[in-house]
Sequence to fold (682 residues):
Amino acid sequence: MTILTAVLLWLLFVALLAGVLRRLPWLPGVIVAAGLALLAIRLWTLPEAGTATMLGQTIILDESSNFLGFTLQLSLAARGAAELLLFWGILFALATAWLNADRALVPSIPLILAALILALSSAPLLWAPLWLVIAAVLMAFPAQGSTPRLARAALRTLLAPTLAFPFFLFTAWVLGQTTIAADDPALWVSGWRALVVGVLLLLTPVPLHGWITAQGEHAPPLTAAFLVGVWQITVYALIRHIFLEYATVADYADPARWLPWLAVIQMGWGALFSMSSTRLGQLWGYLLLWSYGATFLAWSISGEFGTQTMVGLFLALPLALILVAAGLQTINARFGENAKYADFHGVSERLPVATLAVVGGGLILLGWPLGALFPVRLATFRLAETTQSLVFLWALLSLLLATVGLIRLLRALARPLSDPQLPRESSRLAWLILPLSLIGLILSLNPALLDPITARIADWLTLL
Amino acid sequence: MPTLDQFLDFASPLAQQSAIGLSILFAAAMLVASDWRIAVAAYALLKVLAGILLVQLMPPEWALMQWVVGGLVGVMWFLSARRVESVRRRQEGIPWWRPSWRLNPSTLMRLALLLLLILVVYIVRPQIPFPKLPADLARFATFLALAGLVGLGLGDRPMRWGLSLSLWILAADFVVLALQVDAATVGLLASLEILLGFAISYLIVVDGARFWPHPEEL
Fold:
C-alpha cells in the first residue's frame, strides 16, 4: 500500500462514518475533526523517505500508485499542501459542529479534501485539473446546501476546472511530443500559451470571479469560506509546482508581471462592490474576493522567498474567515439568507456578538491591527510599496474601500430595534469567537510562534 | 438487425455530408429552447451525431462512447427535470398535458445571441488550427466551444449550464481525442462528463424545488 492509498482510504472511511451519522447534531463534525487531526498528525510525524506503518500496513513513502494508466504520488510538496488542507478541514468541521450549521458540509469535507489531494498528487502534473473537476463536483453539493435554493454558487463552482482542463491536456500532449515539437516551434509556443490560459482559468480572475461572489451570496457562510479557502490553497500549491517544474513557461508570460495585477484587480473589484453592497451575503462574497486577491498578491510579490509567509497566511486565514462566517450564520438565522441592509433593525442590540464577529472579523480579514492577518498583510503592503508602487497604491485604495463597506454594514446593523420579538443569540457563538480572537491576537503580536510549522511545510512545498 | 460496422458503413457517408450542419442545429436548439424536453432531445441527438463524427478520429467502439454517455446523462437530466415539473404541476393542480411554453424576453434574447453567433461563425469562419484535427471538425469544435461559452453566459439555471458545459466538453473531446486515443483518456473524459451530468441532475432538482408551493416534498 502506498501513502496516498492509505490517506484516501482513511478520508473515505471518515466521510462514510460522518455521512451515516449526519442527522445527529454535533457528532459528525467531531468525528470528522478527530479523523482529520489523526491523519494530519500521522503525516506530520512520518519520515520524509523510507518506510513507515499506516493503518496497520507497511508503506514505502516514495512509492507511487497506478490507476488507469495514471501515476499518483503523494510527494513531499503535496504532503505540505495536504497538511494545510487538513488543518482547514479540522477547523471548519469543529466550527460547523459547534454552531450546528449546515448538515451537508461536514460529510463532504473529507471527500473534497481527498479529491484535492489526488489533484496535487497527479503525475504528470498537467493531468491534475481532471481531478480538480471531481473536486469541484464534490464542492457543488455543500455549496448548494441541504435546502432548495438558487443553484448559482454550485454551478459556478464547476466552471473553472471544466474550462481549464482541455488547455492542460493540450500542453501535456505537446510536452510529450518532444521530437515533433522540436521541428515545429509554433506547436511548442501554442503548448505554453495553452498552459498560461489554463493557469489563468484556475486562478479565476475577474470576470471569472463570479463563483466566489456567488458562494458568498448563495451558499451557507461557513461552507463558502471553506470552499474558497481550500480551492485557493490547492490552486496555489498546484500552480507554484507547475511554475517550478515547467520554468520555461515564464519566458512566454512571466507571472511576476501579470500575477500582481491580476490579484490587485480582484482586490479592487471586491472592494468596490463590497462598499456598494446592499445585502449581507453580497458583502461577504466580495470580502471573500478581496481576501482571495490579497493572498495572490502576497504570493506574486514575494515569490519563492515568501513561501513561508504564504504558509503562515494559510494557517491564519481560517481564523478570520470563521469569525465572519459564524456571525453571518447567526444573523442569517434571524433575517434570512442574503438579507438586505434595509431589513436590519436592532441587530447590534439583540445580536451583539454576531455583530462583533462580522464587523471585527471583516476588519481582521482585511488585515487591520490586532488580528491574525495583520503581520502578513503589513508585510505584503510593505513589499508592494518597495517593489511595485502602482500595485501598492491600488491595493491600499482597495483596502480603504473595503473598510468603508464594513463601516456601512456596521451602520445598518446598529439601527434601533423595531421588533421586540427578535430573539437573542446563543452563548455558543461567544464561546467560538472568543478563543479564535485570542489566538488571532497572540499571532498578531508574535507571528514567529508559527515558525516551526511554517518552515517545515515551506521546505516540503519547495521540494520537487 | 445490422451490425455496428454495417450501420457505420451506411451512416458515415451521410455523416460526412450533414452531421455537422445538423449538430449545429441541435446545439442551437439546446441553448434556445425554454422547454426542457426539447433541450434534452436535442442533446441526445447531438451526442448521436458526435459519436458518428468521432469515428473519423478513433475506432468506432470508442467513438460510440458518446452514445453511452449521452444516453446516461440524458436519462438523468430527463428524470430530474420531469420530477421537478410533475411535482410542481401536481401541487399547483395543473394537468400534465397542458403545455407551459413561453416565448418570454429571455428566450428571445437567447435566440438573438445564438443567431448572432452563427452569423459571426458563418462570416468570419473562426478556426483554431488544432493539431491533427481535420479543418471541418476544427471549425465545428470552435463553434461548440463558443456556443458553450455563450450558453454559460445566458443564465444560472442548472439544465442550461449542464448543456453548455457538455458543449464545451464535446469541443474538448474533439481536440484531445484527435491528439491521443487511449483507453485511459477516452474513459476519463467520458466519466468526467457523467460525473458532471450527475451533479447537474441533482442541482436541477434542488434548484427547481424552489418553485414548488411545498418544497418540503424534496
In short: The CA atoms of residues 360 and 409 of chain A lie 11 Å apart. Residues 254-464 of chain A form one domain.
